[in-house]
Backbone:
């Protein structure tokens, strides 16, 4: 073949249609998923309307000063939300996995455009656009038609920035975790990104407590010149007769977007070539007895020992599980510490951390996929199965909770509270497990066979997000008696907090795991069918 | 193994409609059928992996869905696809299977080593099963099914994607197993293998059992392939379609 046939330019619309079709097919004939999807639509609509209302307030109140604070900071928060929420909570919709387009004669530009436009066609993007519409409202009320046009251009750029940033970072992070070697790098990256949240949160909380509006206004002005806040302040610059700032800020945003797109394109190319190549290498090795190779030394040489050992190996060898553990560690350290440093009460966030830990087991059987058939064929009793899985997870999570309790205690200068705080962590973890374990049997769903740790089935984002939120809320409610006890007892609490917390958590765990085990005995084939995903 | 009127529907599609089948003890039984005939679904229901909508399955006299523990203890299964805990190494996977079935650790060690050697997987191999080739995966799956010395083996497509050398090895092991009094049931769409190995055959298509009996009964005067194509009703090419190829 001498001349390659000219590839016709492909418009991005087929990608959008493909995505919508995937969502549609996923819902067809599955009432539960339709309900979940509709709930997602309602939540997204509420968030959109709420966001619009908040961002429109400065305009209605005719306060340029409030607008100057709210718009850049609120916009920056949105961008950061787009960056972190997919990593920590929701996962990324990988229904349009770049690897699936590897065999098609698509130029990279077309592919990136297509994937990008397709990610704009989703609830989060629409909801963000509507919410930032409130900014346009404000700009229009304050500065008339010129400000309206500038701000409209600004929020469109802002949305593009949000989507690009989110896709680029998750894509890079996923490729990073996929190849085993560079996963340390990815861990560091996440830690650094998360630690950026810390100082911001710290400053915000501290400033808000002292009501230093001048300081906040200064911060807002500075943020307005960073790519995070710049797109959302274009209209305000028109209002303040600084029209010269508009093209400069536009340039800042556009350059950022182009750089992000470049980065994304590079990682997508990696993903298409398949980052799984790094295998082999350790063929020969220690040739101990097979049982000794499997079992972690101090575990009993029984079925329980085998189950726990296999789970332990899976938590450290499988990318999705590893990502869950890393997320838990980072969230656990970086949510409460800034609060503790600013002298705030870290108690409520501690409640959440136990729940975040437990949520990792909410769909535990799906990690195994059809491999769970091995346990079904062997006829593992339900309670044994559930206990061994929870034990293996606790072996990873409990030490992290000890570290969290100590670090928070030391940072807040209240070392005496360490045992009680650890007790509270154990209690919420136990309560979380108690709720999550029956769910994992009753509401198991298949994960896609992707190696990306953030992949979820299309439309599954709503399910996972709602589940996480529900479990967290439930945990906080169930653990509330313990919090009330802690407040009312005051001085005595540091002494009895640890035993009380452990007892409370253990009781909740025993109830939940008992229900889950009995349920599993009756539903083993159904669980297998649910997680196999035909 | 005896199946009585097994029925399974997926959504609206009838995958298996009333399959009844008797596999005599000590026989080498081949379940034949084209892709999508319901072989995997039938075997899954027979071994307790998939709950049937109706019907019963008896393994060595125990009813699978009434007394799963007793039936499963005497059964070895090689499920279809890559249904293995593939983030373990081969030796780890065998040890896991053995302990899971409540075997004595010393016995597990001894048998696992022997199986790994015989199947040429290497008892010191630290490669994760996920990085194994397709043939090695089949072999480690077979080792898992054999480890607890079951009296009945149910294998789904044991020869699919296996190279000739490994296939010969697997054939040899299975033949010795049957000679020693074990029963093997396996599904396949490779007629040559079935014709060479099996003493009993059944043919399925569209979720219905079309024929069953000893190899001689099913084959009759013609070849197994002729019988198979006639029973399943294959399409005969006329030569006019796909002319552009």
Residues:
């Amino acid at each position: 073949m001498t001349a390659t046939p000219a590839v016709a330019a492909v418009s991005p619309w087929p990608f959008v249609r493909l995505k919508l079709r995937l969502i549609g097919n996923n819902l067809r004939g599955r009432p539960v998923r339709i309900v979940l999807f509709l709930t997602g639509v309602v939540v997204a609509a509420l968030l959109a309307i709420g966001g619009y209302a908040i961002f429109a307030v400065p305009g209605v109140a005719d306060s340029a000063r409030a607008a100057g604070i709210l718009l850049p900071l609120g916009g920056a928060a949105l961008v950061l939300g787009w960056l972190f929420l997919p990593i920590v909570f929701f996962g990324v919709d990988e229904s349009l996995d770049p690897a699936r387009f590897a065999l098609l004669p698509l130029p990279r530009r077309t592919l990136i455009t297509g994937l990008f436009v397709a990610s704009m066609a989703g609830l989060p993007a629409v909801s963000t656009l509507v919410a930032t519409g409130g900014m346009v409202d404000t700009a229009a009320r304050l500065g008339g038609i010129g400000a309206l046009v500038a701000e409209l251009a600004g929020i469109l750029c802002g949305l593009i920035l949000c989507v690009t940033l989110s896709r680029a970072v998750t894509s890079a992070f996923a490729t990073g975790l996929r190849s085993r070697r560079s996963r340390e790098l990815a861990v560091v990256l996440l830690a650094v990104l998360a630690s950026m949240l810390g100082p911001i949160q710290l400053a915000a909380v501290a400033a808000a407590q002292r009501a230093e509006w001048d300081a906040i206004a200064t911060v807002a002005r500075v943020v307005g010149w960073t790519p995070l806040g710049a797109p959302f302040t274009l209209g305000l610059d028109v209002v303040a007769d600084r029209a010269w700032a508009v093209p400069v800020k536009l340039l800042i945003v556009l350059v950022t977007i182009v750089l992000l797109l470049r980065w994304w394109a590079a990682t997508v190319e990696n993903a298409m070539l398949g980052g799984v190549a790094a295998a082999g290498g350790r063929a020969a090795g220690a040739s101990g007895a097979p049982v000794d190779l499997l079992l972690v030394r101090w575990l009993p040489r029984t079925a329980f020992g085998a189950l726990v050992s296999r789970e332990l190996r899976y938590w450290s060898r499988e990318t999705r599980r590893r990502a869950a553990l890393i997320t838990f560690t980072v969230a656990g350290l970086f949510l409460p510490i800034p609060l503790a440093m600013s002298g705030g009460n870290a108690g409520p966030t501690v409640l959440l951390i136990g729940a975040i830990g437990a949520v990792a087991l909410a769909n535990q059987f799906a990690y195994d996929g059809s491999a769970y058939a091995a346990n079904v064929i062997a006829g593992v009793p339900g309670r044994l199965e559930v206990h061994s899985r929870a034990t293996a997870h606790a072996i990873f999570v409990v030490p992290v909770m000890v570290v969290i309790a100590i670090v928070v205690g030391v940072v807040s200068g209240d070392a005496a509270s360490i045992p009680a705080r650890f007790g509270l962590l154990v209690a919420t973890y136990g309560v979380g497990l108690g709720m999550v374990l029956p769910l994992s049997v009753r509401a198991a769903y298949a994960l896609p066979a992707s190696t990306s740790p953030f992949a979820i089935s299309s439309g599954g984002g709503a399910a996972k997000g709602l589940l996480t939120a529900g479990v967290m809320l439930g945990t906080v409610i169930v653990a509330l008696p313990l919090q009330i006890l802690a407040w009312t007892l005051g001085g005595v609490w540091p002494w009895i907090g640890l035993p009380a917390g452990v007892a409370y958590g253990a009781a909740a765990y025993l109830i939940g795991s008992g229900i889950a085990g009995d349920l599993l005995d009756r539903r083993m084939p159904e669980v297998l069918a649910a997680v196999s995903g035909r | 193994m005896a199946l009585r009127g097994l029925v399974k529907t997926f959504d609206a599609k009838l995958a298996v409609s009333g399959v009844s089948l008797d596999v005599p003890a000590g026989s080498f039984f081949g379940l034949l059928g084209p892709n999508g005939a319901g072989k995997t679904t039938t075997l899954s229901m027979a071994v307790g992996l998939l709950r049937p909508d109706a019907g019963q399955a008896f393994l060595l006299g125990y009813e699978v869905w009434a007394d799963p523990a007793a039936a499963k203890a005497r059964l070895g299964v090689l499920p279809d696809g890559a249904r293995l805990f593939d983030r373990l190494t081969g030796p780890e996977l065998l040890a896991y299977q053995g302990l899971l079935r409540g075997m004595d650790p010393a016995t597990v060690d001894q048998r696992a080593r022997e199986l790994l050697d015989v199947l040429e997987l290497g008892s010191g191999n630290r490669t994760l099963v996920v990085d194994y080739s397709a043939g090695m995966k089949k072999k480690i799956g077979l080792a898992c099914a054999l480890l607890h010395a079951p009296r009945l083996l149910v294998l789904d497509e044991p020869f699919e994607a296996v190279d000739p050398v490994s296939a010969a090895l697997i054939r040899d092991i299975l033949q010795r197993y049957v000679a020693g009094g074990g029963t093997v049931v396996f599904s396949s769409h490779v007629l040559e293998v079935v014709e060479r190995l099996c003493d009993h055959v059944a043919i399925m298509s569209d979720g219905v059992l079309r024929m069953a009996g000893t190899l001689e009964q099913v084959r009759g005067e013609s070849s197994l392939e002729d019988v198979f194509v006639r029973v399943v009703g294959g399409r005969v090419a006329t030569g006019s379609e796909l002319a552009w190829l």
Q: What stands out?
A: Chain A touches chain B at residues 29, 279-280, 282-287, 289-295, 301-303, 305-307, 309-310, 313-314, 317-318, 368, 370-371, 373-380, 525-526, 528-529, 534 (CB under 8 Å). The CA atoms of residues 57 and 438 of chain A lie 44 Å apart. Chain A has two domains: 30-273, 290-532. Chain A is about 75% helix and 0% strand.
